[in-house]
Design brief:
- This protein has helices at residues 16-25, 80-89; strands at residues 3-13, 30-32, 41-46, 49-56, 70-77, 95-98, 105-110, 116-121.
- By secondary structure, it is mostly beta strands.
- The protein has a single domain (3-59, 67-121), classed as Roll (2,3-Dihydroxybiphenyl 1,2-Dioxygenase, domain 1).
- A hairpin with a 2-residue loop joins strand 3 and strand 4 (49-56).
- It is globular and about 45 Å long.
């Protein structure tokens, strides 16, 4: 399961339009395609890569933790089935998600300090995406 890149950072905001404008004006990023999530947000692109994911806090996703502004970081990898087997062997709880419209397989977990991260795998990789609680 080689991690081959830092994929993006995910930041919460109380003012989504202001954050989009900042990232466009100051950093030169462009708002681009985003999966059809059921919560507000924007993906900001540097060229072809979405490097900053913004989430509006007015209707956050269920996993929302108000004590974190930097909601998560993500890495891209290959070897989905092997990675899930490793997490189970290490008794690391996780939950999986398939991104709407994109098909990317996300494995969400927390590091020992409680920081949220997810590892993204290509849409063509298949594995049992059942959530794992770390107990079995």
């Amino acid at each position: 399961m080689p991690v081959h890149k830092l994929d993006h950072v995910n930041v919460r905001t109380d003012d989504l339009p202001r954050m989009i404008a900042f990232h466009e004006r100051v950093l030169g990023l462009k708002q681009g395609p985003r999966p059809g999530f059921d919560f507000p947000g924007a993906w900001m692109y540097a060229g072809e890569q979405a490097v900053v994911h913004l989430i509006g806090t007015e209707a956050p996703p269920a996993e929302y933790r108000p004590d974190q502004g930097l909601e998560h970081y993500a890495m891209g990898a290959t070897g989905l089935a092997e990675f899930l087997a490793l997490l189970r062997a290490e008794r690391v709880p996780y939950y999986c998600r398939v991104l709407p419209d994109f098909g990317i397989r996300q494995v969400n977990l927390h590091d020992p300090d409680g920081n949220h991260l997810h590892v993204d795998f290509p849409a063509h990789e298949q594995a049992d995406l059942t959530d794992y609680d770390g107990d079995s």
